[in-house]
Design a protein that fits this description.
about 290 residues; alpha+beta; six-stranded antiparallel β-sheet; globular
Length: about 290
């Protein structure tokens, strides 16, 4: 199998530019999967049936979609799939990643935005309620003639999104190669251990011991703190690594399965299909179809 290549998009941002805004109406999505150095907020409307791929996340979107991506390595694409709309609108805003390195973004009013940018390294999809809250600002952004007011309106959009509830990350941490983070030192120790040893068998008692807790107490603590059962968390980490290997290598599915800690190929296939909506071989085939060699 040919090693896949992803288009590395060269941004139109030049010199001292702050924002690049593309506001367009079209009948279909044709741009191939890509990544880029700059941050991107992408809004799509009237595109129900389009498939959005961000890392190892693949979802069919509804009428409205809004995603923030802040990783230079995270590949993404919007594909036509089953969309029948003849008037798709897409507003793409690209902005320089160095903007958050500015000292002003270290100040208190921007804390929620910095947190959002960190989460968006895995791709961050916003709920409809958040989209509707900033719809007017996105709708008029490209019509503002004064660049200062364009920037202030865009920062307002980002701020409102950073305060919303219900935004969710798309790609898994292990696929996006994002360092594990957690507010709890006990949970962080366990997550780091899992990230380093995901290919090995792990038992609850072993992980509870790392956290310095009894197995039953740790199990409850982990679920309360992360919102997921320990076993499901481990499975998701393993699937993220497996998905990355399916995309980046020509290793056999069996080899990937056992190399990522699944001790039974049929079990791996069943779990993968339950979590990803397709078999590992279908995932690999579909993912390669979205790429071109450059």
């Amino acid at each position: 199998m040919e090693e896949r290549r992803v288009i590395h998009e060269i941004t139109p941002l030049m010199g001292k530019d702050v924002l690049y805004i593309a506001d367009r109406h079209k009948k279909e999505f044709t741009y191939p999967i890509h990544n880029h150095e700059v941050f991107e907020l992408n809004f799509v409307e009237h595109a129900a049936g389009v498939r959005r791929i961000v890392g190892d996340s693949s979802e069919v979107i509804g009428e409205y979609d809004l995603v923030l991506i802040t990783s230079p390595d995270l590949e993404h694409v919007w594909e036509q799939h089953t969309c029948k709309s003849d008037d798709i609108r897409e507003v793409t805003v690209q902005f320089d990643a160095s903007i958050i390195e500015s000292s002003i973004f270290e100040r208190n009013p921007f804390i929620s935005m910095r947190r959002m940018f960190s989460e968006a390294r895995k791709g961050l999809a916003f709920p409809l309620s958040a989209i509707m809250k900033v719809y007017k600002e996105i709708d008029t952004l490209s019509t503002i003639k004064d660049s200062f007011y364009t920037l202030t309106q865009f920062v307002t959009i980002l701020y409102e999104l950073s305060k919303c509830h219900g935004a969710r990350t798309l790609a898994s941490s292990s696929y996006a190669k994002v360092a594990v983070e957690d507010d709890s030192r006990r949970i962080l120790k366990v997550k780091n251990f899992i990230a380093k040893n995901y290919m090995d068998e792990m038992r609850l008692a072993q992980l509870a011991d790392i956290a310095g807790m009894s197995p039953s107490a740790f199990s409850r603590f982990f679920k309360l703190h992360t919102g997921r059962n320990l076993s499901e968390y481990i499975i998701d980490i393993r699937l993220g690594y497996a998905s990355r290997l399916l995309v980046d290598t020509s290793r056999s599915i069996s080899e990937i399965s056992f190399g990522c800690g699944f001790n039974n190929l049929s079990n791996f296939n069943r779990i993968f299909k339950r979590k990803k909506g397709c078999s590992p071989s279908e995932f690999r085939e579909n993912y390669h179809k979205t790429r071109i060699v450059v």
